[in-house]
UniProtKB/TrEMBL annotation:
The lineage of its organism: Eukaryota, Viridiplantae, Streptophyta, Embryophyta, Tracheophyta. It comes from Prunus dulcis (Almond). This is Probable 6-phosphogluconolactonase. Belongs to the glucosamine/galactosamine-6-phosphate isomerase family. 6-phosphogluconolactonase subfamily. GO terms for cellular component: cytoplasm. GO terms for biological process: carbohydrate metabolic process; pentose-phosphate shunt. CDD domains: 6PGL. Pfam families: Glucosamine_iso. Its EC number is 3.1.1.31. It catalyses: 6-phospho-D-glucono-1,5-lactone + H2O = 6-phospho-D-gluconate + H(+). Residues 84-313 form the Glucosamine/galactosamine-6-phosphate isomerase domain.
Amino acid sequence: MGCALRMASSMCATTPLSLSSSLRTNLSSSRTSRAPLISLRVSPIFQALSFQSVRTNFKNPISASASASARMAGQNKKIEKFETEEEVAVRLAKYTADLSAKFVKERGAFTVVLSGGSLIDALRKLAEAPYKDSVDWSKWHVFWVDERVVKRDHVDSNYKLALDGFLSKVPIPTGQVYAINDALSAEGAADDYETCLKHLVQRNVIATSKTTGFPKFDLMLLGMGPDGHLASLFPGHPLVNEKNKWVTCIKDSPKPPPERITFTFPVINSAAYNAMVVTGEGKASAVCTALGKSQHSETLPAQLLSAEDELTWFLDKSAASNL
Ligand SMILES: O=C1O[C@H](COP(=O)(O)O)[C@@H](O)[C@H](O)[C@H]1O
């Protein structure tokens, strides 16, 4: 695709600058929409990347005709159903681009949280025309709702997945992609990421929820496993009940790899907009339970998902087949 990625920062895992100074470095360096390569010694959490645009052809950008949208009574929860996964991807691109425009207009920045897994492929249309050129990528700040404790170039890395499938195709400033520090232990990486978020909240890059006091990301783009897990919050695991921490770690994930870090529910549910994107028949049963249409012996994490402004479930026909 002619897409070039250059690792730009000098990683400083052993002797990082203080977070506040590394943050200053990155925020100031990211004021230009195409940030130059940075060769400062910065905390690895503020990894700097450089992206080169690619050209793609994309016809018939919006065809959400098969969408059946239903707002659930009395809740800020919507379900949008589509015939195919392709239509989900088309709709998700427009939905995300529209929210980007809204938040850039309202607050001059757009804070977007990515998950790993199938979500990244579902974002593919956003890196194509018309959005590739119409979205103000310079205002995007990108975070991860969960990450595996592996090196960033490891096949299991959610960062690598997003980089290869989406981030390397759009010109988001290098200092605004907040990868997790892959040189730290699970506990260390979770603490480091939470500290990073706190600095960005202080600077109002990330908003704060007036209701909960937790960070209020503009949009989280989430996926759900067939077992009903989201982020790295798994059914029956005590982390599902965490009430205080923003970011925590799990060392016994039932889905490999076992060590991960994850946002907690107070942070996830404080997001302005949460988009849960689910496709495929293998998830139909969990979708049914998560949306309260069937019972399960234990509460699935996906059942606990909400949002401050609006939660939308984007489903293809297969995922919605038990509803
Ligand atoms: O392990 C993970 O799984 C979930 C779901 O992945 P999917 O491939 O079934 O969509 C994902 O959302 C999460 O970020 C990831 O770490």
